[in-house]
Each structure stands twice: as structure tokens, then as C-alpha cells.
Design goal:
single chain; mainly alpha
Length: 214
């Protein structure tokens, strides 16, 4: 008999079929596996961690006109259909609501360890080689410039400015990706972020060398 996690995997795979490649099932699978890897180093509710990792991008606001309620509604309806406890549902929805980089200023100070774990896993998948690939994939999806020497990164953007930003793909490294290493919550997350952060710095060095042909 299939359990709740198995059913959630099937649901997410079906729901995200044909999704943009940086936010598809494979992104979810990586975040799910990273969450499990971090979770074994912490005292936490593993089922809540896994469910949250699997459902965290079930309806990314970027693809729903910025509406942040769609994911909460879809997740609640699914979990209720699986007879998940109300306590588990509330914990999962809390994580989905507060996981995002753009919502970091709105997140409560005392965040549960389950949120910290899934947030670290999601941020890890946004950096390193995978992060570089996802960033350029999404930049192409939005038809953004790769780079423009005269367009400066916009640092310290508000949530609304961040949501509306159509800057260059390279600027996104400075506006978000290079900041993530120092925003990791768990010791395991911090440890894993170091190598991925270093890779991005090396990539940027090489990018500028190739761009600035003498």
C-alpha cells in the first residue's frame, strides 16, 4: 500500500509535467533529497520536511501572476484528500508560505527547524553548477539579457521590486545567488553551500574573461 509520501510524489510529478525546467519535477526531487540529507543531522519531523520539500513549488507564484495563495490552496486540497492531519497540513503550508527568498523579511524570527531545513535545500539548488544552469534557463525563459556592462545589479530590492525585476541574468547572481551562502540556517546547509558558492565565483571570473575580449 502506498504511503502519503509516495502519493505526494505521484501528485507532484503529474502536476508539474511540462513545467519550466528550473522549476520542474527534477528541481523538486533534488530539493527533496537535499532536505533528507540535511534532516538526518537535525531533530525534526521528517514527514513534514519531506511533504514540504515535495510541495514547495507546486504552484510557484512566478508562473501564476504573482499569486502566492495558489500553492497553499492546491497543497491543502491535496493533503486533505490524503487524510493528512490538520497539524501536519498547517506546518506544511507555513513552510510553503515562508520559504521564498523574496519573503525573507516577512518570515517570523523563530522559524521551525523543518522550515530551516527545506529552505536550505531549496537555496542549495539555486547555487552551484545547478544554480548557474537554472538561472540561465529562467533568464532565457523570460528573454532577459545575459549581461549588459552598463546595467548595474539592484541590491536591497523590496519584495515588489524583486517580483517585477527583469534585470540581466548575471545581475541575478549579485541580487540573490551570491547572498544565499550567508543565509543558510543549518550547519549542514552552510557546509554544503561553501563549494557551490565557490563554483559560482569561479564561473563569474571565467564569464568576464570571455566577455571582455581584448
Amino acid at each position: 500500500m502506498k504511503n502519503l509520501i509516495d502519493n505526494t510524489v505521484e501528485f507532484v510529478k503529474e502536476k508539474l509535467e511540462g513545467a519550466e525546467a528550473g522549476h520542474d519535477w527534477f528541481h523538486i526531487e533534488r530539493v527533496w533529497k537535499l532536505s533528507q540529507k540535511i534532516a538526518v543531522t537535525e531533530s525534526c519531523n521528517l514527514e513534514v520536511v519531506e511533504l514540504s520539500a515535495l510541495l514547495h513549488d507546486i504552484a510557484d507564484p512566478k508562473f501564476h501572476g504573482g499569486d502566492e495563495t495558489v500553492a497553499l490552496k492546491v497543497s491543502r486540497e491535496f493533503l486533505e484528500s490524503q487524510n493528512a492531519s490538520e497539524d501536519s497540513i498547517e506546518q506544511v503550508l507555513f513552510i510553503i508560505k515562508n520559504i521564498s527568498f523574496k519573503n525573507r523579511s516577512e518570515a517570523p524570527q523563530n522559524r521551525p527547524i523543518e522550515l530551516q531545513i527545506v529552505q536550505d535545500a531549496d537555496r542549495l539548488d539555486a547555487i552551484g553548477a545547478i544554480g548557474v544552469a537554472r538561472t540561465f534557463n529562467f533568464g532565457g525563459f523570460k528573454n532577459n539579457l545575459m549581461y549588459h556592462p552598463d546595467i548595474e545589479p539592484k541590491l536591497n530590492m523590496s519584495k515588489e521590486e524583486y517580483k517585477k525585476s527583469n534585470g540581466t541574468t548575471i545581475n541575478h547572481f549579485y541580487e540573490k545567488l551570491l547572498l544565499l551562502k550567508d543565509l543558510m540556517n543549518t550547519e549542514k546547509g552552510k557546509e554544503m553551500a561553501e563549494d557551490r558558492h565557490r563554483f559560482m565565483l569561479n564561473f563569474l571570473d571565467q564569464f568576464y574573461k570571455e566577455w571582455n575580449v581584448d
